[in-house]
Amino acid sequence: MLRYPKRPVLTREEEIQAATRIAEAERAVYDRVAASPSAMRAVLDLGKKLEMQRIHVRTVTRVSASDDPVLEDERVMSLIRALRAEPSGARIAELRLQQSVFARIVRRARDARLNAHVRELQRLRNEFAYSNMRLVIALAKRFYHKVTVSGAFQGVDWEDLVQSGSMGLMRAIEMFDVAKGFRFATYAEAWINRFIEREIQDRGLTIRLPVHRHVEVGKIQIAQRKAIATTGRALSVDELAAALNMTTRSVDRAMRAKARTVSTEETVSGVQDLTFGGMLESTDPSPAEAHEDDAQWESVVRMLAHLPPRLATVLSLIYGLDGKGERNMREVGDLLGLSRERIRQLERDAFRMCRLHMRFGPIDRTPDALPPDEERRRAMDRASKARRKAARAAEAADIGEAAE
Predict the structure, then answer these.
(1) Distances in Å between the alpha carbon of 181 and those of 131, 184, 187?
(2) Domain ranges, ordered by start, for the chain
(3) In this structure, which topology does domain 295-385 adopt according to CATH?
(4) In Å, how far are 21, 36, 119, 270 from 115, measured between CA atoms?
């Protein structure tokens, strides 16, 4: 819950008096900067950096988008040269330094009287801001109602709008000139609206758009509303590009950028338990399937690690385990300098050793090294073959004797 000191609404005369006191406090601050040697050294060092083009004018002064950069550079440089010749608080004020830049100059100066003037100026500005907080609340309510009703901007909080409006109010107090005869509320409303709109643009969209893209979207929407009101139809992309002096590509990007994003967890209209994410077909494996695939791949890697390097290379090339796709035996033979039949034999030996590994555990890397059970089985097979061969030979000899 935001809390701020409540102040009564100022009358026209009280508003003029408060603004006049703020203007006098500002003049006192700038005059003290001109009278302080350390503060003037900081200002002139800043001007030296500008002349050497180590920093840009737009990074230290308050420059609007409509100001000509060339003319603004010349204006600032002429003021710096005049300050070198004769320090003046009025000229320092004409520099229109940004608040952060001016605060660094004050800290560098370490002047007690200057700090006292700055604190008094800040107190007067805060008092004036507290007296106009009702204006911030009223404008923030208007924007918050638009945001909640439209539903196009999500994630914008009421406190964020009020905070941004307060920053706009402080900027309006800094820029307000009571000598022009305007009411402060009339002048401050534009600044407050600007800061709140910027906050909505930065935080209200799921995918943040740059400021220039928001400007393009606004121009397109205004042109479309005018076209519908006059001709009864919306303009095409080519017509918008011609009317707004933009390229077709820029118009197309801006129109796609203003499309509303929808959460996959949002329910489908009329169906309570169905979400947009449930209607989308997913080609990605489920977590269980992904875990199973990872486990299988790890077992394959361990299996290849127990094979001789030559056999492991043959299997990797044939089945694409190296990440370069599957190959036939002729292509593998060409890579290894072997015949297709030899590659087939090596593949057979590799599978045989893999089966032995699965049955008896880790095995030696040499193809001739076999487990004791396998050696026993092979010896028994050889003995059985020898007995059958001897039986066939004895039978053939008996038949020969009977024929004689």
Answers:
(1) 19, 9, 11
(2) 12-129, 131-209, 210-257, 295-385
(3) Arc Repressor Mutant, subunit A (1.10.10)
(4) 17, 11, 6, 64
Long-range contacts of 80-87 (CB under 8 A, 24+ apart): 80/44, 80/47, 80/50, 80/51, 83/34, 83/40, 83/43, 83/44, 83/47, 84/44, 84/47, 87/34, 87/35, 87/40
Phi, psi of 125 (to 5 degrees): -65, -40
With a CB cutoff of 8 Å and minimum separation 6, the contacts of 55 are 46, 49
Closest alpha carbon to 262 in 276, 246, 281: 276
Show the tokens assigned to 105.
Answer: 């100059």
Does 295-385 match 131-209 at the fold level? no
> Which two structure tokens, joined as six digits, stand for 53?
């083009």
Dist. CA 252–CA 300, nearest whole Å: 50
* Cα→Cα distances 67→63, 64, 322, Å: 7, 6, 61
Sequence-ordered list of residues with C-beta below 8 angstroms from that of 117, at least 6 positions apart, any chain: 25, 28, 29, 32
Geometric angle at alpha carbon 318, from 286 and 342, rounded to 5°:
155
For 113-171, how does the pLDDT look when each residue is reduced to its tens digit (9 = 90+)?
999 999 999 999 999 999 899 899 999 988 888 777 665 566 678 888 889 999 999 99
- C-alpha to C-alpha distance for 251 and 241, rounded to whole angstroms: 6
Task: Report CA Rg, the chain.
Answer: 42
**Model confidence, pTM:** 0.56
Q: Which fold has domain 131-209?
A: Four Helix Bundle (Hemerythrin (Met), subunit A) (1.20.120)
CATH architecture of 210-257: Orthogonal Bundle (1.10)
| DSSP class of 303 | H
Q: How far apart are CA 114 and CA 89, in angstroms?
A: 12
